[in-house]
Amino acid sequence: MDESELPAPPPYEVVSNTQYFNPDPNIQYYNPEVTIKQPLSYAWQDESSAVVSSVTSGGLRLDKAKKIGNRLVIDFEKISCCPWETTGLDPDCKNYIPDELRARGITQNKWSQWCEDLTKIQKKSPSTGGCLCTFCFPGLFPQAMLCVILCPISGDHCLKCLPCFYGDWYVALVKWQRNVNEVLNPLDMHAKLKTYKPFQKAPISIGYSGRISGKDHNYEMSMWEIALTAAESQKLMEESWDNGVADGCTSGIGRNL
């Protein structure tokens, strides 16, 4: 077929509002007629576009918090069996600020920072294996008795940073709670880390059943509790961290969890 006999091509059509492929979600390309919305997971710089409810349509709380009365209760595992195990909050907790706190003006960035700071502090936390070595190796029972009676392993003193002492961990927890409450208290809220022994005294949190599996009456269950009203905050301030622990030994001086 001769080229002169080929049909003419269709006329060009002006296309507007074209969506361009964005290989990097962190980069927004400018087009006056196109708006490319940044994914929520990357929208750290714009809090207004990062609003994601911590409660699903089915009622599942992604923030790992359970509301009991006028308090939020969040699981907090203070120590581990072995030094390399993860302790503290659930790793996903930092990704979802509770709706109750967002409604009072706390931002996702602030919540994430609190959780990350607490995770760093937990690197100083003791482990069951470490405590056994400190108390029982190599002298076994006699050494354990001497440590309990004479050794202030939890105290705030000049040797608290040594591996056999945990005073630096307790001091860091106090400072962390103070920093959090400097933000919460003006909003009529208050937060506190609390420990319950036996665990039956503890509030039924989201992770309660999994945490008590295989545990006996010696297990100390810790929680992060956040009061949401002025009256409940005052009540929580007056409550002790110690709910049945009653560690009166020298080794327990300085404990706050």
Describe this structure in words.
This protein is α+β, with helices and mostly antiparallel strands. The protein has helices at residues 99-102, 108-121, 128-136, 140-150, 167-184, 208-212, 230-238; strands spanning 65-68, 71-76, 190-196, 221-227, 242-243. It has a five-stranded mixed sheet with strand order 1-2-4-3-5. Helix 2 runs antiparallel to helix 5. The longest helix is centred in the C-terminal third of the chain and has 18 residues, at 167-184.
Q: Report the biggest beta sheet as strand number plus sense, adding barrel if it closes.
A: 5 strands, mixed
**What coarse outline follows from CA principal-axis ratios?**
globular
The tally of domains stands at 1
Q: Which stretches are poorly predicted, pLDDT < 50 over at least 5 residues?
A: 32-50
Determine the fraction of residues in helical runs and give it as a percent range: 25-40%
Radius of gyration, Cα only, in angstroms? 27 Å
Listing every helix as H and every strand as E from the N terminus to the C terminus, the arrangement reads: EEHHHHHEHEHE
Oligomeric state as shown: single chain
The chain-level mean pLDDT equals: 81
Write the layout of secondary structure elements.
Elements: E1 65-68, E2 71-76, H1 99-102, H2 108-121, H3 128-136, H4 140-150, H5 167-184, E3 190-196, H6 208-212, E4 221-227, H7 230-238, E5 242-243
Parallel strand pairs: 3-5
Antiparallel strand pairs: 1-2, 2-4, 3-4
Helix pairs in contact: 2-5
